[in-house]
Design a protein that fits this description.
Elements (H helix, E strand, L loop, with lengths): L2 H37 L10 E7 L5 E7 L2 E6 L3 E2 L2 H13 L4 E3 L16 E6 L2 E10 L5 E6 L5 E5 H4 L22 E8 L2 E7 L4 E5 L3 E2 L2 H12 L5 E3 L5 H4 L6 E7 L9 E7 L7 E5 L5 E5 L10 H4 L12 E8 L12 E8 L2 E5 L7 H10 L5 E4 L4 H6 L7 E8 L8 E13 L3 E6 L5 E5 L10 H7 L11 H6 L9 E3 L1
Antiparallel strand pairs: 1-2, 1-6, 2-3, 3-4, 5-9, 6-7, 7-8, 8-9, 10-11, 10-15, 11-12, 12-13, 14-18, 15-16, 16-17, 17-18, 19-20, 19-23, 20-21, 21-27, 22-26, 23-24, 24-25, 25-26
Length: 496
């Protein structure tokens, strides 16, 4: 093939490619978009243009909602926040609705199920009013009949496209009971039969001011605020009964939230909520900011702490596991041993190969699990605000049955420099109920779950019986081993 022929062939191929690309591909997309626009029933309307919607709900309620400040507000039959998902879905469905087929000379409306006034949806956009009436499903396929106000034509549209317009009255209402950002709450008052708390948010954390002063449990407070922010109604009562009938004469839980103002110097606004007593065992009525009452499941009361202890700081230790480099455990001899016996100290350090301990070798993985449990150790109850020497002795906290000290590298310091990350003293075991404990710097006597004794040795006997590696040298019986406090318990070795 000569060069001239090759050039002509190349130009022809390039022209063909350009035709295919611009006409068939890009042009095809444009034609499809133009065809889709031509089939839209309301071509001049975009979803964000819809200003109001009026319809009859599936349960026969005539409702109207208006868009105000980018939010939907029901104006009929109640003044109530509208469900944004529901009304945004309606606006989008109306704006994007397109026909699958058109009957220019249709039969009477009743043939298509288009004679029912309650199936009409009216809406406004750009200062104009539009209407759509939905009818029956087509005999074949997944379409339904619709008609547009001002036209005699009947259209078929995909049934799935108009499902958003078929809503019950409860579906149109915002089911959120309280509207707030958890970070904006600067104060909280909670009350329940027989008790209550007052908390304020400080610069760093929450503090209790009533019924006593002290640090609050941030985990409990944050969980409560989150549960309140995400609390949703399962139904509404628009003609509330008396407080006695509603279970609100003596609510099971009440909360007052102080919401920080965005304007400096302006007092915080308050949000209040009351949870009534369950009358049927299935649901509770809730009073908030609206005249209507909200209905929630009866078991949701469990989301609201009703015990002062739960609001109090019960964290015995709180550090990052990866920060721990050294662990010191001091066990007191058993109570029935001679007082001359010295405490037994076990040291563990973390290196590149893992944890090593001396003079006893832990079971594989036991030290890592122990440090992990210590890092987030949290009490379930508070036994006493403080205790005298004799009381502490009776509780096996003076001296403590076991003391755990966790050390780690000082932040920003040399690797050899250490700081104490936690110190926890463990006392008596109260049956299967719990284990008594104290933490450094606090006089409070706490109790944590006995189940944690599975991972945290609460005494020397517990350590020797359940935490010593079977691969180490056989440990002597407790009585013989304790008789010589200067003798090592077993050989040192590494533990993964």
């Amino acid at each position: 093939m000569n060069p001239r022929t090759t050039g002509i062939a190349f130009l022809f191929a390039a022209a063909l490619f350009a035709f295919v690309y611009f006409y068939e591909i890009r042009g095809g997309v444009g034609r499809q978009q133009a065809e889709a626009a031509a089939r839209r029933l309301f071509p001049a309307v975009e979803a964000e243009d819809v200003e109001w919607i009026a319809l009859t709900t599936s349960d026969g309620i005539s409702a109207r909602a208006e868009r105000r400040d980018d939010a939907w507000e029901l104006t009929e039959p109640w003044v109530f926040p509208g469900d944004e998902f529901a009304f945004d879905g309606m606006a989008s469905a109306l704006a994007q609705l397109s026909s699958e087929a058109i009957f220019d000379s249709p039969q009477p409306p009743e043939v298509y199920g288009l004679d029912a006034d309650e199936r009409e949806v009216r809406f406004g956009a750009g200062g104009e009013e539009f209407s759509l009436r939905t009818g029956d499903k087509t005999p074949v396929g997944a379409d339904s009949y619709v008609s547009v106000g001002g036209s005699d034509a009947v259209y078929t549209v995909q049934t799935a496209r108009i499902n958003a317009l078929r809503r019950g009255s409860d579906d149109l209402r915002d089911k959120r009971i309280l509207h707030f950002d958890t970070a904006s709450i600067e104060g909280l008052t909670a009350t329940w039969p027989g008790g209550g708390v007052v908390l304020v948010r400080g610069d760093d954390d929450w503090r209790l001011t009533e019924p006593l002063e002290g640090p609050a449990d941030a985990t409990t407070v944050d969980a409560l605020l989150s549960n309140l922010a995400y609390l949703r109604a399962s139904g509404f009562v628009d003609d509330p009964p008396s407080d006695r009938e509603a279970g609100l004469a003596q609510p099971d839980f009440e909360v007052d939230l102080a919401v920080r103002s965005v304007t400096e110097g302006v007092e915080p606004r308050h949000l209040r909520l009351s949870v009534g007593r369950s009358r049927d065992g299935k649901s509770r009525l809730v009073r908030a900011e609206r005249p209507s009452l909200y209905r929630i499941a009866a078991e949701r009361i469990a989301d609201f702490p009703r015990d002062v202890v739960r609001y109090r700081l019960r964290q015995l230790a709180d550090f990052a596991v990866t920060d721990a480099t050294r662990l010191e455990i001091v066990f007191q001899p058993a109570a029935d041993r001679p007082e001359s016996l010295e405490p037994v100290t076990i040291m563990a350090t973390r290196g590149e190969a893992g944890w090593t301990s001396s003079p006893e070798r832990f079971k594989a993985g036991a030290i890592a699990t122990l440090v992990s449990e210590l890092s987030r150790l949290r009490a379930d109850d508070i036994v006493a605000e403080s205790a005298g020497p004799d009381e502490l002795g009776a509780l096996q906290l003076a001296p403590a049955a076991a003391v755990y000290r966790v050390y780690g590298a000082a932040p920003g310091g040399e690797a050899a420099s250490e700081v104490k990350l936690a110190e926890v003293a463990i006392g008596a075991v109260r049956g299967d109920a719990g284990v008594l404990a104290r933490t450094e710097g606090r006089e409070t006597v706490f109790e944590f779950d006995y189940a944690l004794a599975e991972h945290i040795p609460v005494s020397l006997a517990a350590f020797l019986n359940r935490f010593v590696s079977e691969e180490s040298d056989a440990a002597e019986p407790e009585e013989t081993a304790a008789a010589d406090p200067d003798a090592p318990l077993a050989a040192s070795d590494e533990s993964p």
